[in-house]
Amino acid sequence: MKKERKKANKKSKNVSQKNTNPFKKKVIGISFIIILLVGFGIALSIFNKPGKTYINEMLNLNSSKVQQNFEDLGYVNRNIPKNYSNEGLCERYPTYGKALDNITDEEKDNLIAESNKLFADEGNYDAIDKDGNYLLNGEKTRQKLYKHTASKDMYEGNVDDNEKAIVRKINVNPTKWRNYITGLYAAPGEVVKVEISSSDLEKIGSLKVIVGQVTHRNYRNNIGKLTRNAYYRLPIIANTINITSTTAYVGNPLGGPIYIYPEKHDVFSVTISGAVEYPTYIHGYTTREQFEHMKTLSAPYYDFEIWDQGVRHSGPKSRANFDYDNLLKVGDLWEKICRTSLKVPTNSSAEAGVGYIYDPYVMAGEAVALVGGKIAVNAPLYWMSGALNYENMVKNGFWGTIHEFNHHFQNYGMEGASTNEVTNNATNLLSYVLYTDISSMRSEDDNTLTGWNRYTDPSRSLRETLNNYGSGSKGLNTYADIIHSFGVDKFIEATRLDAKKYTPTSWYEALCKATGYDMTYYFENILGLTIDEDVKSKYNNGSLQTFVPVASLYQTGRNYFVNDEEVSIETVRPFLIEREKDFILDFDKYLYIPKDFTFKIKNITQPSNGSLTKISDNKYKYVTNDYSNYSGTFKVTIELLNPSIKTKDVTLSINLGFKYPLPEQTLYTYESRIYNTPDEALNANFEGYIEKVDFNVGSTFMNGISANKIGYVRGKILIPEDGTYTFCLRAGRGNHALYISLDNKEYEKKIEFSGDKGGFDLNEDHTFAINAKKGDLIWYKQVTISNNHPDAFTELGWTNNDQAPKTIGKDYLYHMNAIITDYSFNSDVVYPYTYNENLVFYKTNPNNQRIISFNQGEWNDDTKIENILDGNDNTFYHSKQNNFVSNDNPFELVLDLGEEKVWNTIKFVGRKTGVNHIPVTFKIYGSNDNNVYDLVDEFSGLKPNGIEVSTQFKTSSFRYVKLVVTDTSLTTGNKYVCMSRIDFSYELDGNNLSCNTLNYYGKWSVENNVLSSYGHVVKGNGSFEFDLDKETTGLAILGTTSNNFSLKITIDDKTYEVDSSINDNIIFQIALNNSKNKHTIKVAVKSGEIAIDSIFVGK
Questions:
Q1: Residue 341: which H helix or E strand, with range?
Q2: Is 102 exposed, middle or buried (0-12, 13-18, 19+ CB in 10 A)?
Q3: Which of 229, 373, 526, 1089 measures 20 to 30 Å from 97, CA to CA?
Q4: Cβ pair 1041, 1007 in contact under 8 A
């Protein structure tokens, strides 16, 4: 606040605030790629780049697997019903999203009865023929598909009659028990054709086709009579047909999106014709070009999906987001949230992901999580936009949305997962800490960080804990204290130690184990909880250091110790201050410790930008010296003093950032009233005042404008999205005016009135509307002259829909002269998703092998030893009758494998029928000359898997192998050797990595027109390069090639010329020996083209 006193009628100075460089968030453009590569042994390598770097926005995504794609094959004509109809059971029907007023119980019964007659799920029919006739057990039911009265404006829209029906082939490689998006919408009453090959149908058993809004697990959000009073739509809106033939037909009288659900998991394709497209965004699959086309579609539905163990947001198109750049960021953000929540114990089958359905009907509360097999969230329509707006999510939060999400991830803590609303919030906080910028809004004024967002500030959560000292607290503050003291990793470790126990004692023990600190003082003294003595005695015995919570408003992180080794963590964004002003760090006021302790600052380091000057023992002045965005991290070491409790010093990390200057407010005081209208005062530059008080406030609200005073509010507004904005001036107890400019030069008076208009509404006498684009700036000036009332006030509000205006959020308000740049906050990928796989690089070929010797003869001529090399699993070898295998009588077999190679796996395959005697205890010897054999490995008592025994052995290079078997799989009785095949192979466990993780040069393109692992492939004839760490034991490049292609592959300066693929899915593979240094791989396409799906890195 700035205050100026003057004599009346003396001309005032024009006091202006300098333009400042705005606080700009650190941009981390490719950090997630680096983390992913390093995490799996790949580091970006600096080579002489052969050609221009290929850049595509899809390659920057942090996307998990997407094993489905669409092929659009053409268009067909639609058979559009001309009229609406119904079953005649109701006199009136609800319009989607609009409740029937004064609905009676009889009307509810009739609506439910009518809904029950419309859908196959209720047993009315089980199939539809090509003419729309309903069939039951193959017979017509005399009912037919039609366009229902209630389908008008279904999902807040209608399919345009001019919209073309498409023929689309959907290819899916399913991984989880859930349905799959088709991107197709059945218009109300229209018949849609579904075709699947007989071979694919045999593989998957049957195919459910659902038409209408359901969750990813096929849950229909039906309205029951006793659930809630308002009927905002028909009680049932989804229809399911189970398809068991190669050609079938589906539809829905209300229309709706189409989903497919296979009975069994196997790769399959289905072709659907007669439906129209609807907008879908699948992260890692949907391209910008495809999404731009979707903006033109009339079908009123929308799906957003993180495909694998992720999330689906499903609801009306009118509530969705169509900013592709925004959705790329939203997708990556939801990927991070899903990966983080999956780290804690789940109380649903959440590996299938969580499905949101946004619906005018919510069965309980504001929103509800459907925990268990449904794995869903039922949320109101207006929540959908908030779940898909990146900037709003990371700046302001979306607590309610992920609160419901994390009801599926809260199987830990001090109370049962099914009965508490706390641990899901603790899981929320993990993502808030890691992936949002919300904590940067904290300040010395608690009102800048309110509601659940306050727990991103460690000083707020600890203050809450200390204010309830000894009260038995189990609230979110107690979990936040731990997160901010030890970081997210240690907190997650504790949740996994505590899964499904639900007592303070179990949570206490989990924290003691995870952190290495004695939690007794915190739990018993500070929280006031009782810990079981037998458990407490294990940790409260002097062997562990005592945990004493400490927090400061300014901190970004702190330290803790593991076995005397210091660990530093960060959980908070930099603390923002005004650049032009010296800033006082007051630790007496803003450092929080338990009442049992005092503190002393032992040391404070200097920041890299600016300087700290000591004012007193616990106060320091910070002065910046340049226009860097941050002060740079400095450390404050604090000694905690208590004569009976010893604990190590705590070091807090602090980083100061600089914020945009806020809008200005000025309160002018006059000896007597000299202006009657705002125009007079503004035109005279408010001359004649005796006192002037200036404020910078992130609000358009100003009050306390008393007699002989004038309030003057000014700033500029940043428009967050395209739309028509209605601005409303609510003001009272004076004369008021609002002036608007689009350039801060020419202002136009838009609103003026006297007296009171104290509420936000759409009345034209104190509103105006303007069309604006995202990023536009609108300057405003508000003037209020008190009519001698002690508390005149003014506030500008806005809306961009048909709802009443509301307060303009502080995130959109700036000083008139602030230089605003695009918001660019991003966060690291902390938990990259890993796909652990096993890849067989090569195995023995029976045609190249020969038997050198064996020692136990054959049962008869049909069970000859040569049968193990004939490639036919219907034949087998059986050792000689009465020649029993034992330690004293081992079975010995010597094989020539045909070539010297590196091997690490052996598999014995028994006979298909009859008693098996598969080797389970044996030794493997290897040789390259058939003279000297060395022991490779030995095994005892292996367990068969069906008719197979398989194990990996020490990686060795040999051509000849001797097997010495002393026991087989028969559990009782005389033991022989009986088997149909022996395979030696080189196979590796390792990680499958997306094609996004490579650096490309030259001619490439990203394509999604083939079924792939991550939603797209990189196709072309350029080059790519990468490094593998020295422990890597194998590499495979997965993808496809053109008919005539050739590659030059250089690995550690050794060159390979490749002109044929390993198989349909593997372009190149090689086993690698451990190296003293990293492996360097360079791949160049010499001719033809390749399409890279992914790479396999063996460990």
A1: helix 324-341
A2: exposed
A3: 373
A4: no
Question: Which residues does residue 639 pair with via DSSP β-bridges, in sequence order?
Answer: 600
Q: How would you classify the pairing of strands 239-243 and 891-909?
A: unpaired
Q: How many CB atoms lie within 10 A of CB 778?
A: 19
647: tokens are 């604990």
On whether the CB atoms of residues 897 and 961 are closer than 8 A, the answer is yes
Q: Per residue in 348-357, is it b (16+ CB within 10 Å) or e — as a string?
A: bbbebbbbbb
CA angle 190, 194, 197 (to 5 degrees): 170
Question: How many other C-beta atoms are found inside a 10 Å radius of the C-beta of residue 864?
Answer: 16
User: Phi and psi (nearest 5°) for 89?
Assistant: -90, -15
Q: Which residues of 266-293 are buried (b: 16+ CB within 10 A; e: fewer)?
A: eebbbbbbbbbbbbbbbbbbbbeebbee
Confidence of residue 585 (pLDDT cuts 50, 70, 90): very high
How much is the average pLDDT of 546-555? 98
Which amino acid, one-letter code, is at 947?
A: I
Would you say 490 and 514 are in contact if contact means Cβ atoms under 8 Å apart?
A: yes
Residue 903: strand pairing partners: 956
Q: What is the DSSP letter of 520?
A: H
Structure tokens at 999: 């650096």
Whole-angstrom distance, CA of residue 475 vs CA of residue 465: 9
Closest of 1044, 1053, 995, 1063 to residue 1024, by C-alpha: 995
SS3 1029: coil
Q: Which residues pair with 1091 in a beta bridge?
A: 1019, 1040
Q: Are 255 and 278 in contact (CB under 8 A)?
A: no
* 3 state SS for 769-835: EEEECCCCEEEEEEEEEECCCCCEEEEEEEECCCCCCEECCHHHEECCCCCCCCCCCCCCCCCCCCE
Instruction: Pull the structure tokens for residue 705.
Output: 């404008």
Whether the pLDDT of residue 859 is over 90: the answer is yes
CA proximity to 736, closest of 722, 756, 716: 756
- Express each pLDDT in 986-996 by its tens digit: 999 999 999 99
Report H helices in 86-156.
105-118
Q: Within 13 Å of residue 760, how many CA atoms lie on the same side as its CB?
A: 16
What is the token pair recorded at 70? 């669409």
Structure tokens belonging to residue 812:
């959109």
Q: What angle do CA 497, 502, 508 make, to 5 degrees?
A: 55
Task: Give Cα 426 to chain centroid, integer Å.
Answer: 17
Contact call for residues 910 and 980 (beta carbons, < 8 A):
yes
Inter-residue contact 211 to 238 (CB < 8 Å): yes
Query: Has this prediction a pTM greater than 0.90?
Result: no
Contact 496/413 with Cβ under 8 angstroms? Answer: no
| DSSP label at residue 846 | G
Measured distance CA(644)–CA(646) in Å, rounded: 7
Rg (CA), the chain: 35
Say if residue 27's pLDDT is above 70.
no
Closest to 123 measured CA to CA, from 135, 112, 132, 111: 135
The neighbouring-strand residues paired with 503 are none
| Closest to 309 measured CA to CA, from 393, 387, 408, 422 | 408
What is the dihedral sign for C-alpha 923, 924, 930, 934?
A: negative
Q: How far apart, in whole angstroms, are the C-alpha atoms of residue 21 and residue 456?
A: 26
List pLDDT tens digits, range 73-110. Answer: 999 999 999 999 999 999 999 999 998 988 999 999 99
Residue 471's SS3 state is coil
Give the model's pLDDT for residue 581: 82
Of 1000, 1070, 988, 1076, the closest CA to residue 1037 belongs to 1070
How long is the chain?
Answer: 1099
Q: How far is CA 177 from CA 352, 375, 1060, in A?
A: 6, 11, 37
Is 141 within 8 Å of 132 (Cβ atoms)?
A: no
